[in-house]
TrEMBL record, chain A:
Keyword Ion transport in annotation: yes
Keyword tags: Cell membrane, Copper, Electron transport, Heme, Hydrogen ion transport, Ion transport, Iron, Membrane, Metal-binding, Oxidoreductase, Respiratory chain, Translocase, Transmembrane, Transmembrane helix, Transport
Family matches, as PANTHER family: CYTOCHROME BO(3) UBIQUINOL OXIDASE SUBUNIT 1 (PTHR10422:SF35), CYTOCHROME C OXIDASE SUBUNIT 1 (PTHR10422)
EC number annotated for this UniProt entry: 1.10.3.-
Listed name of the protein: Quinol oxidase subunit 1
Predominant localisation class: membrane
Entry's Gene Ontology cellular component terms: plasma membrane; respiratory chain complex
Alphabetized GO MF terms: copper ion binding; cytochrome-c oxidase activity; heme binding; oxidoreductase activity, acting on diphenols and related substances as donors, oxygen as acceptor
Record text on cofactor binding: Heme A3.
GO biological process: electron transport coupled proton transport; oxidative phosphorylation; respiratory electron transport chain
Family, as annotated: Belongs to the heme-copper respiratory oxidase family.
Organism, as annotated: Oceanobacillus chungangensis
Automatic annotation (TrEMBL), chain B:
Function, in words: Catalyzes quinol oxidation with the concomitant reduction of oxygen to water.
Protein name per UniProt: Quinol oxidase subunit 4
Gene Ontology, cellular component aspect: cytochrome o ubiquinol oxidase complex; plasma membrane
Keyword terms of this UniProt record: Cell membrane, Membrane, Oxidoreductase, Transmembrane, Transmembrane helix
Record organism: Oceanobacillus chungangensis
Transmembrane segments: 12-29, 35-59, 71-93
Gene: qoxD
Record keyword Transmembrane helix present: yes
Superkingdom assignment: Bacteria
Topology of the protein relative to the lipid bilayer: Multi-pass membrane protein
GO biological process: aerobic electron transport chain; ATP synthesis coupled electron transport; electron transport coupled proton transport
Top enzyme category: oxidoreductase
Subcellular location as annotated: Cell membrane
Length: 648, 94
């Protein structure tokens, strides 16, 4: 029994036991359901082993949505706990675990897979490629991310949840102050999903540099592809820092080194430094693809080409460089002298300039356009003022001397939710609605979608604007409760009300998906939105080989050129198409990696050694495996094209 | 004969040997720590450049601009990260 004692939850509560039962029942229901409907073969052949960028994209997005609900539940729990003074719904330890989980899940397991899912889905279609450059690596990326996400998610029922905040600062995260295995989970879950992200970065840079359709010069790429290129460049340069920081943390916690200790020559604040060397570029990894999505949507629904294409690209390149120059503003109050803080303060304010350029470009794209207020456009239009408010409060926080007043308060919490929710979450919901027909061949209901939009937007304002006020009044972040005398009660209740509205909004989105699966018409054609770029020139849903003939383009708005200027995208004649084979190796390797990391978390060295050997064995197998892919014959292509209405 | 003789590579090889000798001299000769480190840093960066351009053929292929762009981008980020961390953690830390 002694062996199993380590898996017990150190700080249990009825809520956690209920979750254990719920998780057990859900897994059982899924397994029984799949067995009953005899879907194992289908699932394995069509999804789990797939290397198709569209299906990997869809799996990323499904995982992201699941994690959105996990993180959302955490958010509602926190708002409920703080809705009235001296509330006893959660105790301090549980509150710590909940906000830690909320932060990690929302940033790394919701926002990241959502943007990577969007890139998977859209980038190869926008550049006219058949798949990404390394399709199997892409599958491995997804499954590594998935293994990391699952590892993180089981922590609260097996062994204890991490509780040192999503920033996981040392010495709080050291063995002395975080005694459960929670922070080990944090280290390993982020480590393996980070590996997946790094592979994605390399994969997409190569894809975009090497696999563009004839005629698509760099400056003729659609804006989302540009944002994906820049984002992946940032990923490749930022993520190794996280990898090393996590490794150093692991060495400290599991092998007794003294890198992040406050004694024995360690530097505890160096974790904060390394974390934000990765963490601030990470912010731009999240927001740049969102900017790309908004650019596509605003241009489509304004009926105009994107204003200031070159300045859009230039500002993204500048942002990508400057995102590496500002990280110390996350710890202005840590003990720097005024000179150091001034440097990072100035760079922080300077980075608002290229972002401002982009805002004006979007406004000028809409200027004199024929705007159609569809659901994606509503999110984009709401994004502009809300994001600007978040940006302005960001500049306030960037003033180092004033930051001593705001830091570690709800003002900061309000600020970063104010940029991330209208910035990233709105973009993802807009992109999801916009590209939904490319994934599934039908559209989401507009009317229900607008209801969801209003609930989420109004709910957002109610949730987060009160925090600006309580923050300025001195309410510290991450405090599980407060006394009535502080007077924070009513505004926190308002914030809880807003969180409730947002939750209703997300439930409406789920309802919308179910409703649309049942009721939406299926014969929507290639281009239901009257859009502009290349992905709309092929079928909805997209056939496995993307394009029957390699497209040839003249500008970023290839389809618009064809519709308005009569230029031809598909000039050649249909030939047999070379496609990559499916492979079970990525999911198997990620399963092994999961065992490896899980064993490492609990110091089960036998498991670590065996799974490490198995992992390398898989790599050796892959090295000697002969896999030349397969060809889709012309007859089959013609059949597919005719069945779905023919290639343009 | 002149076309067959890889003059550039042979010269590069001799030059990189020379750089190694200069770097080695830091160990064998008696000099101050600062001077030694300066010599090591300079010879190391020149050595890296020689290897990259002459022996790894950067700049000889079609994707020359891509290679140099990513090279300069990574040098920029490496320098910023190192000197920024020094500033944040050592020089500017009270």
């Amino acid at each position: 029994m002694e062996f199993f004692e380590r898996f017990a939850v150190p700080h249990p509560s009825p809520l956690i036991y209920a979750s254990m039962v719920a998780i057990g029942l859900t897994i059982l229901a899924i397994i029984l359901g799949i067995t009953y409907f005899k879907k194992w073969g289908y699932l394995w052949k069509e999804w789990l082993t797939t290397v198709d960028h569209k299906r990997i994209g869809i799996m990323y997005i499904i995982s992201a949505l699941l994690m959105l609900f996990r993180g959302g539940a955490d958010a509602v729990m926190m708002r409920l706990q703080t809705s009235v003074p001296d509330n006893g719904f959660l105790d301090a330890q549980h509150y710590n675990e909940v906000f830690t989980t909320h932060g990690v899940v929302m940033v790394l397991f919701m926002a990241m897979p959502f943007i990577i899912g969007m890139m998977n889905l859209v980038v190869p279609l926008q550049i006219g490629a058949r798949d990404v450059a390394f399709p199997r690596l892409n599958a491995l990326s997804f499954w590594l991310f998935f293994a990391g996400a699952m590892l993180f998610n089981i922590s609260f029922v097996i062994g204890g949840s991490p509780d040192a905040g999503w920033t996981n600062y040392y010495p709080l995260a050291s063995n002395d102050f975080s005694t459960s295995v929670g922070v080990n989970y944090y280290n390993w879950a982020l480590q393996i999903s980070g590996l997946g992200t790094l592979m994605t970065g390399i994969n997409f840079i190569v894809t975009i540099i090497k696999m563009r359709a004839p005629g698509m010069k760099l400056m003729k790429m659609p804006m989302f592809t540009w944002s994906a290129l820049i984002t992946n460049a940032i990923i490749v340069f930022a993520f190794p820092v996280l990898t090393i920081a996590l490794l150093m943390g692991t060495l400290d916690r599991q092998f007794g080194t003294a890198l992040f200790t406050s004694t024995d020559g360690g530097m505890d604040m160096h974790w904060a430094n390394l974390f934000w060397v990765w963490g601030h570029p990470e912010v731009y990894i999240l927001i740049l693809p969102a900017f790309g999505i908004y650019s596509q949507i605003i241009s489509t629904f304004s009926g105009r080409n994107l204003y200031g294409y070159k300045s859009m690209v230039a500002s993204m390149v500048i942002i990508s460089l400057m995102s590496f120059l500002v990280w110390a503003h996350h710890f202005f109050t840590m003990g720097h002298d005024a000179f150091t803080n001034s440097i990072f303060s100035v760079t922080t304010m300077a980075i608002a300039v290229p972002t401002g350029i982009k805002i004006f470009n979007w406004l000028l794209t809409m200027w004199k356009g024929k705007i159609r207020f569809t659901v994606p456009m509503l999110y984009s239009v709401a994004f502009i003022p809300l994001f600007t408010i978040g940006g302005v409060t960001g500049v306030m926080l960037g003033v180092a001397s004033a930051d001593f007043q705001y830091h570690n308060t709800m003002f900061l919490v309000a600020h970063f939710h104010n940029v991330i929710i209208p910035g990233v979450v709105f973009a993802m919901l807009a992109g999801l609605t916009y590209w939904w027909p490319k994934m599934f061949g039908f559209m989401l209901n507009e009317k229900i979608g607008k209801w969801a939009f209003w609930f989420i937007t109004v709910g957002f304002c109610f949730s987060f604007f009160p925090m600006y006020i309580t923050g300025l009044d001195g309410q510290a972040r991450r405090m599980y409760t407060y006394s009535e005398a502080t007077g924070f009660g009513p505004l926190n209740m308002l914030s809880f009300f807003g969180a409730g509205l947002m939750a209703i909004g997300f439930v409406i989105i789920v309802y919308n998906v179910l409703y649309s699966i049942k009721n939406s018409p299926r014969n929507i054609g290639n281009d239901p939105w009257d859009a502009r770029s290349l992905e709309w020139a092929t079928q909805s849903p997209v056939q496995s080989y993307n394009f029957p003939v390699t497209p040839e383009v003249e500008s970023a708005d290839a389809l618009w050129d064809q519709k308005k200027k009569g230029s031809q995208i598909f000039k050649g004649k249909v030939e047999k198409i070379h496609m990559p084979n499916n492979s079970g190796l990525p999911i198997i390797m990620s399963g092994i990696m999961f065992v490896f990391a899980f064993s490492f978390v609990f110091y089960i060295w036998a498991g670590v050694i065996i799974s490490a050997i198995a992992f390398f064995a898989c790599m050796v197998y892959r090295t000697f495996e002969k896999d030349d892919g397969y060809y889709i014959p012309v007859s089959e292509i013609n059949e597919t094209e005719n069945k779905n209405g023919g290639a343009n | 004969m002149k076309e067959l003789f890889p003059a550039k590579q042979v010269n590069g090889f001799v030059f990189s040997l020379l750089l190694t000798v200069v770097a080695l001299s830091v160990y064998f000769m008696d000099m101050s720590f600062e001077l030694g480190m300066t010599i090591l840093l300079i010879t190391a960066f020149i050595q890296a450049g020689v290897q990259l351009i002459i022996f790894m053929h950067a700049g000889e292929s079609k994707d020359k601009s891509t290679i140099y762009t990513s090279l300069f981008y990574s040098i920029f980020i490496a320098l910023v990260t190192i000197f920024g961390s020094l500033l944040a953690m050592v020089w500017g830390y009270m």
